[in-house]
Amino acid sequence: MMKLARALGATVTLGLFVAACQAPGGSWGTAVVKETDGFGDYYETVVNVPLPTGAPRAFSCVGPWSATTSDTYLKGIFGVSRVVQAPDVLQPSGATGPGSIVLPEDPKLRVAVAWADGFAYAGPLRFNFSEETAWSVNGVGIGTTLAQLEKINGKPFRLVGFGGDNGGLVTDWQGGTLSNLQGGCALTVQLAISALAPASAQAKVVGPRVFSSSDRNVRTLRPTVGSFWVYYAR
User: What keywords tag this UniProt record (predicted)?
Assistant: First the structure.
């Protein structure tokens, strides 16, 4: 009975995840999830994997995106053909290394995963999204405005001045809501400003200086989220 309860527990947990993704009008097909319980007994569960539709898709560090996920687990959820290994996934350091790409043929749903263990393809370090992604994190997505970011965070935050590779990068959420995400991961956002903004206005907020999002000169440029990623500190 205890063994059965353990097996059923694993199945129910997965079922809840699948239901959360479910949307009408399509399916990725079926996937086989393999698990071994604490007694060493082996189980296989065939599940239907619904096709997510609509935008934004809510991303959180649980289920397939948890701190214990792996390439094998992702393939069990999304299907072997929808998770591919790649040698050049962006790492937290800015270099590239071994990783996995989930849904590589769909730029709006694609997620590139950098691994702490590049041999076992396990232990996620960073989840990268495309610049046209439909995913969002705690309501933050591509195009989210500065005012919306402050509202979601519950307070102003700090960011690097614009210009260069790190321009507009949020450096500190200042203890706001976005400082603590479910599942123990962290969110990094890079804001972008319009190239058509007056040069005189841009000149006031460029360079490696750190600004508050409440700075009048920053607000004048009305920056929006140009890219974002999620990572685990290990």
Answer: Signal
